[in-house]
Amino acid sequence: MAEATLTAHNAPARAANASLTDWIAVTAGSLGALLATLDISITNSALPQIQGQIGATGTEGTWISTGYLMSEIVVIPLAAWLTRVFGLRRFLMVMAVLFTFFSMYCGMSDSLAGMIAGRIGQGFAGGAMIPTGQTIIRTRLPQHQLPIGMSVFGLTVLLGPLMGPVLGGWLTENASWRWCFFLNLPVSIALVALLWTGLKPEKLELDRFFKADWLGIIGLAAGLSSLTVVLEEGQRERWFESHMILWLTVLSAIGFMLVIIGQLKAKQPIIRLSLMRNANYASVILIVSVVGAGIYSISYLLPQFLGNVTGYNAQQAGSIMLLSGLPAFLLMPVLPKLIARYQARWLVSIGLAMFCISCLLDVGLTADSVGHDFWGSQIIRGFAQVLAMMPLNQASMSAVKTEEAADAAGLYNMARNLGGSIGLALIGVLVDRREHYHDAILRESVNANGTLVQDQMAARAASFLTQAGDDARAQMQSLEQLAQTIAREALVMTYGEAFLVLGLALLACIPLALLLKTSKPQGIAR
To answer: Which architecture, in CATH terms, is 19-211?
Structure first.
């Protein structure tokens, strides 16, 4: 009895629960991250209407998305430094106000230049709210409540890109594309109120601004922004056949060289690459880069298949995409307990395996596949993303000290976004080249003098002849339909290969995930 009393006396006291103010701060951080991630993709469904009203071509319209991503990825690793200079509350409130201003500017814009400028401003302000949200959770919640906070944050970051196209498509169809931007006003007002209530004011430390690693800052801005444009626009510009892509690649290389020099020369480098010496943290960064590539690539491939092969409009395709968000809501009540109770390596490994399976299920798609053929893979993919991403969020924070949380969050979110951009670029190259390859092979295999081809062509021509009454036109229409069939089959084969490559890449990360070592948080009793 005495021994039990002594043991209880010597056991470390459990930290007090977070206060109401702490939870208000966590809510503000998660809401800011949701707002920022939602606006990454909310314009995707509305691009045709936006391009039509501002007089932009399809190629020019891609800069509406690229501008946002370019500025967002630059500010993410700078957020830790900017927070230390201006104070967390002041910095985030200014970013929320700027985000609102640039959103309104985009909504009222009538020119391509104005829209791109507004999206760049949006990306800069929104990007700052992603890593700072994660930092708030890490610094304001006790260890035993950290799984709850990280789960909430992870769900917002995961659901934002999924909800964006659906919400954007609905607003465009039922109101106007301008509401994709005007919608941010009431949300931003609520965000500012939460930030004011939940965060304490901090003094300015302008000496950090003037003594900063400016070589690294300039290099990081030039390197990341140029690299993002190269990855986003490279395939459309035919890579190094374009002088723009060539010079941006050179600028990106110079920028990263400046960052390396800053690491060696500066007393406090702008980005703490020394965190990568931590093997556990480095493993998390590598895994989240591949998972980011998988998530972004799926968000590109699936709508492309549904639009180009199945003929779905943006809203219909969005509803299929949103299926992968359902497991997030189903797991929400139990996810913190899972993260607290089981080691991250097992949850992440199971998530990666399920993600791989979901990709392999889509390998066998055919030209006759429709929306319901994706239900199974999308539901599995939803569980996979939650099980892979949520523990990684916590593992990234558990692997570092509290004072390193801001820098670690910046690197983590930069790695996820950069991995997504690299994945999209590689998938774009794969789809483009393999589609041409399969199209050529199929055309060679179709023998115009073959009995089967002749019978098919005759049947199609007869059908068109009854409609048009012109034999020459009917023959041309039958040839055109044959060409379209070949192109569609080539596209289906290409998408199948792309899903296979993604599945294998995710499978290759499982051994790395099994090496993760994270301390089990105190907390939820059995």
So the answer is: Up-down Bundle (1.20)
